[in-house]
Fold Atu4866 domain-containing protein.
Amino acid sequence: MDNKYAGMWVTKDGYIRHNLLPNGRYDEARGNRESAYQGIYTIEGDHIEYVDDTGFTADGDFRDGILYHAGMVLYRKD
């Protein structure tokens, strides 16, 4: 798996946080709710596919260092 995108991604207001773990799992926090969604992700090129632990699927794309996911815009947090 290409893990160059592993790390924390956050919306501009910090409300939604995607932690893309190097082992192919992710942990999404929303506001004060830590681990609101968890699951696995795969990356091909600049495209990401998510499958949460309930089976829900979603996807997104990395463009110019920004993650566009389900209408959200997430920025890498250093």
In short: The chain has no helices and eight strands. The longest strand covers residues 33-44. The chain has a mean pLDDT of 95.
